[in-house]
Amino acid sequence: MVPKNHTDYLKEVYQRNVDTIYHICLMYLKNEADAEDAVHNTFVKLMEKERSFENELHEKNWLIKVAQTYQKICSVIGADIMRI
C-alpha cells in the first residue's frame, strides 16, 4: 500500500483507525483527555516516520503498538508529565 499523496494517505489511515485507537487508549487510561493525548501522539509518530504498510492489518497493529507504548510510559511516569 504505497501512498500516492502522503497527506491523503495519512487522512485515510486516521479515518480508518482513530476510533479503534481512541477506545483502546480510553480503556487503559480511563480519562478522555489522556486518551485524546495518546491518540494524538500515536498519529504524530505515524507522520514522523512517514511509514507505509503492507496492508491495513499491519497498519492497525503498528498504531496499536505505538498507542500501547505511550500508555505504558504514562503509567510509569504519570500522565500529567506527558503534557509538559
Shape: elongated
Structural class category: mainly alpha
How many strands, what sense, and barrel or not for the largest sheet? none
Amount of beta strand: under 5%
The rounded distance between the terminal residues' Cα atoms is: 36 Å
Helix-strand sequence: HHHH
What is the number of helical segments per DSSP (H or I, 4+ residues)?
Answer: 4
Number of individual domains: 1
**Helix percentage:** over 70%
Give the overall average pLDDT: 83
User: Got a strand count?
Assistant: 0
Low-confidence segments = none
What's the arrangement of secondary structure elements?
Layout: H1 6-29, H2 32-49, H3 56-77, H4 79-82
Helix pairs in contact: 1-2, 1-3, 2-3
Concise description?
This protein has 84 residues and is mainly α. It has helices at 6-29, 32-49, 56-77, 79-82. It has one domain.
Structure, explained:
The protein has about 80 residues and is mainly alpha-helical. It has one domain. Helix content is about 80%, strand content about 0%. The protein has 4 helices and no strands. The longest helix has 24 residues, at about 5-30. The termini are far apart. The model has no long low-confidence stretch (mean pLDDT about 85).
